[in-house]
Amino acid sequence: MAEQVFKIPDSIKKNAKFSYCPGCDHGVATRLVAEVIDELGIREKTILAASVGCSVTLYDFLEIDSLEAPHGRAMAEATGIKRACPDKFVFTYQGDGDFASIGLAESMHAALRGENISAICINNTTYGMTGGQLGPTTIMGQKTTTSPTGRNREYYGYPIKIAEHIALCDGTAYSARVSLDTVANIRKAKQAIKKAFEVQLKGLGFGFVEILSTCPTNWKMTPDKAHERVRNEMMPVFKLGVYKDITAEG
Amino acid sequence: MVECLKDKKVLTKGNYAIANAAVLAGCQCYFGYPITPQSEIGEFMSGKMQELGRAYVSAESELAAINMVIGAVSTGVKAMTSSSSCAVALMQEGLSYAAADELPVVLVSVMRGGPGLGNIYPSQGDYFQATKGGGDGDYKLIVLAPSTVQECADLTYKAFYLAQKYRNPTVLLADGMLGQMMEPVEYKQNPYPEIDNSNWALTGAKGRKGRIIRSYAPLASDRCEFLEKLYKKYKLIEENETEWEEIGVEDADVVLVSFGGTARNVKIAAKMCREKGIKAGVLRPITLFPFPHKRLFELSKKVKKFITVEVNMGQMVNDVRLAVNGNAPVELIHKPVGIPPAPEEIVKQIEELI
Amino acid sequence: MEKSFLIAGFGGQGVLLAGEVLANAFMYAGKNVTWYPSYGAEMRGGTVNCSVKMSDTEIGSVQDSTSDYIIVLNQASFDRFLPSVSKNGTIIVNTSLASDTKVRDDINYVFFPITQTADEKLNSTKMTNIIALGILARATGLLDLKDLEKALDTVIPPHRKNLLPLNLQALKIGYEYDLLHV
After folding, report:
1. C23 touches chain B (CB under 8 A)
2. Taking a C-beta distance cutoff of 8 angstroms, is the pair B175, B124 a contact?
């Protein structure tokens, strides 16, 4: 008897064709979100506030209700959805530009209000969809199409450490930073997503996961090299870990 | 603070009348950020919504507030925000999205002086902002303009109804005078039927495929089809919902066109004109979109002159000119900001213009 | 018939509330009525004023350049609004706080030490505004005391209802001002 060891999650649309670039971690992140929705059995009560950027395409892949927000406003729309329907599961899936640049006010205030919302932020140190410009998480020295000589303090200032900032908000129940560069880290990432979803289901407050992610196209790297960059250049700046977990023992 | 009393006349500020009527119309969520001269709406809502177990969020900005409304109404519930002029400017992006997403957002816009920070005095300087929009692309908002505090209440019911009926963002366009003044109001039962949202609202994909509410249409052909459909709806709204009040226009030589609080003084001025032997009539658009251009065109065949009276530098006058299409001269009496010009002053200017 | 009123004083004298009571009273008398305040920045210190209009027909403008009856509760209001009294109109002056009073010969005056009376008779200068309403009712003959009493009951919020008897007393003192004056 053959045993099925791999199946497409139920929450993924049938015949959905991923449009992410080859080697981009969005594909893995999307799958993890779908798996967690399946495991928690919440597909039929889930509403996504979609973002703008590469992350917006999530609504093309998941068989859930979705509302497309203007750039940066996903968290405000998620707040509206959740306040109107407290019994629904509401989450956002945003890039670092959407979450931490144009939408920083909405993100911080949702966390400060302790909205029962879960948020996933893909940090790839660049504005991906528009062609790899400098974003709020671009690391010092990193060359982009709008930082041709590398990020420096004089012109650009410093990158934001999102998970740490969100952890400082009193309304945050859970905040973690994870990576998808190894199988072990992918497993940890899934646990973090699950936790960020569960705190909402328990009504404990804002659940947040920052996912370090590759952008092979704009970084002009192979997927392997891109994951090496995540390890060698991003992780020293954006340290992995759980920055807040009000459900933790002790 | 005014209570939600039905069938009883109470002396009420326009802002409270709007808030009260919104609650009675079944508004489930209020999102807002304070700005003079409409802050009473949010203040009232903060207490009342909590008392009724409904949602109230003190939003971090008007940008957030309008998007919270979008989120809430996408689930099929009635929700609103309220703001004023320079802060409504911040909401233009959201209004464009709501129009494109065909979402029944209700915005109460209580106009004050502009441009920029302007001042807090009454104004009608956001006629363009409401009717022409500041967001991107081809879209229309339904715009209702009350003239009395009673109408502030009545048109609030209507705003929620029309927003739902046409799945279109709807603006109640008041001004600082209407918001701050008191007049007796009777809160009638909401006269409008409930609209069934179940075929489009986001409720979680229970037993069905996921729904996406979005305006992104990457293909040119998709966009064409979408805009054609949207404009068919706007045409339907024009056919069904154009509303205005007219007084003494049938035999009028001069028709005074005025909306909102200013029309109050204009009606008195028209009466004074009649006493002086000037055959003046009044046409007061109640819906600014749809605009009563057909009626104005009809009248233009026999009226000698149109005069619009506005508290701004002359905005609606442009729409009157378009409607009249050269059949008669269209003049403007205006005051830049503040309470409307006194009836005597309007009469004096009419005499100069005719 | 259409009549216009303006009440002015400094912040804290209950100018807006007095106007609200007046407007409610006219509403109970079956009149059309409007109330319009000075609002915003003007509320912080300085003078506060509100306009009340009553009419048997539809009311157009909520505030005119002149008013038929003006109550001034302090000197600044007197100085500012004396020119705003309509010809043959009436100004009611709180002489306790407005002693420098120029005279126009085309209007009527009621001079009365309202704040002092409030202090002496009711031990509360806060009743100045309500005494002034009583004076207005008597001086104009336009208001029924019963409507004003009902209006006070409406306007005073539930958590301040213990102050209603004092307010009713103030109203009466104002209404009988000409007897006091003798």
Report:
1. yes
2. yes
What residue of B is the nearest CA neighbor of C54? B183
Residue A17 pLDDT: 85
DSSP characters over C113-140: -HHHHHHHHHS-GGGHHHHHHHHHHHHH
**If pLDDT is split at 50, 70 and 90, which confidence band does C87 have?**
very high
The alpha carbon of residue C86 is apart from the nearest alpha carbon of chain B, in Å, by: 15
- What pLDDT is attached to residue C179? 64
Query: Domain extents for chain C?
Result: 2-181
- B3 in a domain, yes or no? no
Any residues with CB less than 8 A from the CB of B285 and at least 6 apart, and which? B145, B243, B244, B257, B259, B291, B292, B316
Dist CA A84 CA A73 (whole Å): 17
List, in order, residues 6 or more apart from A175 with CB less than 8 Å away. Answer: A163, A164, A166, A167, A208, A209, A210, A242, A243, A244, A245
Please state at what angle helix B62-73 crosses helix A74-84, rounded to 10 degrees. Answer: 50
Q: What is the mean pLDDT of residues B328-345?
A: 97
In a domain, A11, yes or no: no
Name the neighbours of B, counting chains with at least 3 Cβ pairs within 8 A: A, C
| ipTM score for this prediction | 0.95
| Amino acid, res. C117 | T
Tell me: do B168 and B275 sit in the same domain.
Answer: no
Residue A180's CATH number: 3.40.50.970
User: What DSSP state is assigned to residue B2?
Assistant: -
Residue with tokens 């309008």: B66
Q: CB contact, 8 Å: C154 with chain B?
A: yes
Q: With CB atoms and an 8 Å threshold, state whether C65 touches B183.
A: no
CA B74 to the chain's CA centroid: 21
Residues B169 and B302 in one domain: no
Number of domains in chain A: 1
Query: C99 CB near a chain B CB, below 8 Å?
Result: no
Give ∠ CA B9-B11-B13 in degrees, rounded to 5: 130
Q: CB–CB of B256/B284 below 8 Å? A: no
Is C2-181 a domain of CATH 2.60.40.10? no
The reported pTM is 0.95
Q: Which chain C residue lies closest to B260 (C-alpha atoms)? A: C60
Decide if B91 contacts B35 (C-beta within 8 A): no
Burial of residue B354 (number of CB atoms within 10 Å: 0-12, 13-18, 19+) = middle
Render pLDDT for C90-105 as a digit per residue (tens, 0 to 9): 999 999 999 988 889 9
CA–CA distance, B279 with A231 (Å, rounded to integer) = 84
Q: How far is B321 from chain C (nearest CA, A)?
A: 26
Q: Do chains B and C touch (3 or more CB pairs under 8 A)?
A: yes
Whether residue C182 is predicted with pLDDT greater than 50 in this model: the reply is no
Q: Does B81 touch chain A (CB under 8 A)?
A: no
Is A7 a domain residue? no
Q: What number of other Cβ atoms are within 10 A of residue B348's Cβ? A: 15
Residue C178 has pLDDT above 90, yes or no: no
Residues in CB range of B196: below 8 A, 6 or more apart: none
* Nearest residue in B to A63, CA atom: B210
A132: left (phi over 0), alpha (psi -120 to 50) or beta: left
CATH of the domain at B71: 3.40.50.970
User: Are C33 and B183 in contact, with CB atoms under 8 Å apart?
Assistant: yes
What is the C-alpha separation between B328 and B331, in angstroms, rounded?
10
Which range of residues forms the domain containing residue B314?
244-353
Q: B180, A39, B69, A46: which is closest to C40 by C-alpha?
A: B180
Tokens for B38? Answer: 């409409």
Q: How confident is the model at residue B21 (pLDDT cuts 50, 70, 90)?
A: very high
